[in-house]
Amino acid sequence: MNRILHSLQAVAVAATLLCTLSLLSGCGSGGATYQAASNTTLGRELQDLQESYDKGIITKKQYEDTKKRLIKKYTD
Questions:
Q1: How far apart are CA 15 and CA 1, in angstroms?
Q2: Which of 9, 73, 66 is nearest to 32 (CA)?
Q3: Is 46's pLDDT higher than 80?
Q4: Cα–chain-centroid distance for residue 57?
């Protein structure tokens, strides 16, 4: 019985942590932040960005601003 209670407590703690992290990830200046892995291509990043916009995850302004930053990052 103690093992089950301990397991349930561990799950509750993990769920609380995940919820807190997901809530905190939405905090900030409201600007889109996008950080690419070092082996990601411009094409892949633009596709991911477009998918985020299409799904309503980011606004049109965030999409446009981030797109400009990505293109500049790969062309400079």
A1: 21
A2: 66
A3: yes
A4: 9
**How many Å apart are CA 76 and CA 68, to the nearest integer?**
12
Q: Among 28, 57, 59, 50, which Cα is nearest to 70's?
A: 50
pLDDT band at 76, cuts 50/70/90?
confident
The pTM assigned to this predicted structure is 0.49
Place of tokens 């400009």: 68
For 66, residues 6+ apart whose C-beta sits below 8 A from its C-beta are 32, 34, 49, 58
Q: How far apart are CA 56 and CA 27, in angstroms?
A: 17
Give yes or no for a contact between 52 and 58, defined as CB atoms under 8 angstroms apart.
yes
Distances from the Cα of 59 to the Cαs of 30, 32, 66, in angstroms?
10, 9, 11
| Residue 30, pLDDT above cutoff 70 | no
